[in-house]
Amino acid sequence: TEGFPNVLVEAMSQGLPCVTTDVGDAAFILNHAEWVVKPQQSALLSEAVSMMLASPQEERQTIANSNYHRVTKEFDIADISQQYLD
Length: 86
Fold this sequence. Notes:
Layout: H1 6-13, E1 20-21, H2 26-30, E2 36-37, H3 42-54, H4 57-74, H5 77-85
Parallel strand pairs: 1-2
């Protein structure tokens, strides 16, 4: 598993609704418990993806906007770089 799943942050930064497994920092990054499933539970992951796809477009857009704002606020590269330097 990846401790800090960059692909999740990248997807969120593009304004995408996301579903993830609870590995590494994924649950912390996504911060939407209903879209985080236990690892190695393919049926649960499939169900969560199906639920996301079946949700109304407006709801998916709200989630996507929330994801975008979270990563641009919490995981800005300039801020993270400065934290390392400090």
